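Case study.
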Amino acid sequence: MAGRRSVAAALDTRAAIVRCAADIASVEGMEGVTIGRLAAELEMSKSGVIGHFGTKEQLQLATLEYAADRFRVRVWDPVSHRRPGLDRLLAICESWTRHEDDPGFPGGCFIAAVTFEWDGRTGPVHDALAATTKLWRRVLRREIETAVAAGELAADTDPGQVVFALEALAVGVNPARQLHGDDLAPAWALRAMHAVLGVPAPSST
Amino acid sequence: MAGRRSVAAALDTRAAIVRCAADIASVEGMEGVTIGRLAAELEMSKSGVIGHFGTKEQLQLATLEYAADRFRVRVWDPVSHRRPGLDRLLAICESWTRHEDDPGFPGGCFIAAVTFEWDGRTGPVHDALAATTKLWRRVLRREIETAVAAGELAADTDPGQVVFALEALAVGVNPARQLHGDDLAPAWALRAMHAVLGVPAPSST
DNA sequence: CCTACCGATCGGTAGG
DNA sequence: CCTACCGATCGGTAGG
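After joint prediction, the assembly is written out as follows.
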């Protein structure tokens, strides 16, 4: 019993560390997450923090995994019931821009911040980030190809070009809001996504 | 004579420090630029490096100024002779995506990297970055408004929405290339820019 | 521009 | 999970 309680408590502690790390990283990047800072914020010792992960790199990978999971839950899961093709594609655009509008992290979208922090580096974190975003790109591409096959999008649609543009527009919401105070950025992004897809824009957002 | 030589040499040294800092920052962000690292790379003492700036924050501001100047020279200056309105606007889109394709920094576009690093923070560097990008946005907006007034763009064009979309697409080139190896990203961005503007895409790029 | 140095903090380990 | 500690590095200063 005491043993089981300890294991559960340890998992709770680990989850709390990862949540705290993701919050900090959304503002200052993953390099801004230091073990000493986490220890202070969580009122633990440094060894208590790092003991759950071994190295800082493992902590970074766990943090990325947590944020990616939240992204999936908030962006992809809500649209899984939609009809494949344009219907689901537009639903993704909506849930995605809505997520960028309120990403649930104090510094805005974690994935956006970390993407620009790690794209130019090498190593396991870069690779994990690339693998995760590659997965999402594949889902997008599949819906685009389904929509083209169904005649819902123009036959000369370039799936790679559209995937790139949708991603860039979604990610761009973050700095527009935080650097320029553009509260309309999510609506702007959604409208631009429709233009890129070549379908009529929604009447309002 | 010796005095003048010294002043010129000091300015050269300062410029070399800033260039080196910008190169590092394009890969690892401005927080990755440490005084000790600059000293090692330039084979100077730490005090010799920081003496030119006083504080690390002043060094960061000087580095940002340098990168912004290079951006202006490479993106804006080449199009200053173009006719105001759609002609110049499309020329900007071309020089901008060309710059993102080959930004002249080892880690890709400095401005893109630093934007996502600093958008969620506060302080002088955040403010300087916001002021610089705000200036560029104003130029873009002016060209869009001129094009609308001349009937070259649709009358219901939302300048703010278009400015946001063009910026997001240009900035998105960086991670697409470095995270996914998308060598076509500049061409994709240019095509999406045309879609957002509602004008025919160029035949090839 | 240098050497020599400051206190603070970094990631991480030993031992319990 | 803790205390106590390691060598390395941080930004910056004193004095020349």
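Observations recorded in class. Residues 119 and 127 of chain B are 9 Å apart (CA to CA). The mean pLDDT of chain B is 94. We will return to this complex in the next lecture.
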